[in-house]
Design brief:
3 helices; 30% helix; GMP Synthetase, Chain A, domain 3
């Protein structure tokens, strides 16, 4: 669908673009900028960071859930988790991944256990 601006130039209507939300002006543009500037992260990078933070883990698995390198599942079994709440366990994992959690990793399903 094309629309015609007052000055006579043709441009594609924003409503035909995927991801456009009429209720949030500029959302599509922000999403495009975000997608262009944030590189995806390889599962091996996540695993290396987690291995460095939890060197004594008896089990450490990282799985890319969607194949898009931004939705992951991690299983970590480590004695360091003994006696602390699940929230504190997950905070330790997030701290280990650092800046990756602020952009490249969109979702992380965690399973942490003391072992």
């Amino acid at each position: 669908m094309l629309c015609f601006a007052a000055n006579g130039c043709k441009r594609e209507a924003l409503t035909t673009r995927p991801g456009f939300d009429r209720r949030r002006p500029g959302a599509y543009i922000r999403a495009q900028r975000l997608h262009e500037t944030i590189p995806m992260v390889e599962p091996q990078i996540l695993k290396e960071k987690l291995q460095a933070a939890f060197p004594n883990a008896s089990q450490l698995e990282v799985e890319d859930l969607t194949g898009t390198k931004d939705h992951y599942r991690a299983v970590i079994v480590d004695a360091a988790f003994a006696g602390i709440s699940r929230i504190e366990q997950h905070k330790l994992v997030y701290r280990a991944l650092g800046e990756l959690m602020n952009g490249p990793v969109h979702a992380l399903a965690l399973e942490t256990r003391a072992g």
